[in-house]
Specification:
Layout lengths: L5 H11 L6 H13 L2 H17 L1 E2 L6 E2 L5 H5 L5 E5 L6 H6 L5 E4 L17 H10 L4 E5 L4 H13 L6 E4 L15 H9 L2 E2 L1
Parallel strand pairs: 3-4, 3-5, 5-6
Antiparallel strand pairs: 1-2, 6-7
Helix pairs in contact: 1-2
The structure holds zinc ion (ZN).
Zinc ion (ZN) binds next to α4.
Length: 198
């Protein structure tokens, strides 16, 4: 027989399913939740539901938005530079540093055969279509610095062979294997300004 009630076990399992949360932390979080005033926990649950209901990927760039089309795609329509990132949160350091004024495109991952992520799991056809349809002149590949990012960049380069678009990638100032989302502003500014042709 388990020492913990079934509903508490279920809550721990939910926390343990979150990235970066081990079993021990999951249990600590679940117990913490139970000590909070009921109104706080209800607000938390409400915010979870609210986010799931309202936030969805932008149909043009796949970044998370609560509008039909995200503000960046709307306000920067017609821009000729497109920055390709792995996930929606990778846009944050660009916007925080203010270095880039163009459009974004969220690829939805990078190639990773070990994790079963192949080209068919990425938004590649949509990327190719956007580059062609919108007459993009520079494509900045900001997929991080890992072997997976490198092979993804190479595949995009091949996919766009014959398309007249300048391809660049961020300079190597970004530590190997680091998550772009957490890059500080200065590193981002340097990496962007030092971007090189593919
Ligand atoms: Zn968008």
């Amino acid at each position: 027989m388990s020492v913990e009630p079934e509903s508490l076990e279920a809550l721990i399992a939910e926390f343990a399913g979150l990235p970066g949360i081990g079993q021990k932390t999951a249990r600590r979080l679940a117990y913490h939740v139970l000590t909070r005033p009921k109104s706080d926990v209800e607000r938390f649950a409400g915010n979870l539901t609210n986010a799931i209901e309202k936030v969805h990927p932008c149909p043009q760039c796949h970044a998370f938005t609560d509008q039909d089309i995200c503000p960046t795609c709307t306000e920067r329509a017609g821009a000729k530079a497109l920055c390709v990132v792995e996930k929606s949160s990778d846009i944050i350091p660009f916007e925080r540093s203010g270095i880039f004024k163009g459009l974004y495109f969220v690829l939805g991952g990078v190639l990773s055969p070990l994790d079963g992520i192949g080209p068919e799991h990425l938004h590649l056809p949509q990327l190719a279509a956007r580059v062609k349809d919108e007459g993009i002149e520079e494509l900045v590949l900001a997929l991080g610095s890992s072997p997976e990012a490198d092979s993804t960049a190479l595949m995009i380069d091949r996919m766009l062979a014959g398309v007249n678009v300048k391809r660049t990638r961020l300079a190597r100032g970004i530590p190997m294997g680091s998550d772009l989302e957490f890059i500080d502003e200065v590193t981002m500014l340097r990496a962007f300004e030092g971007r090189v042709s593919l």
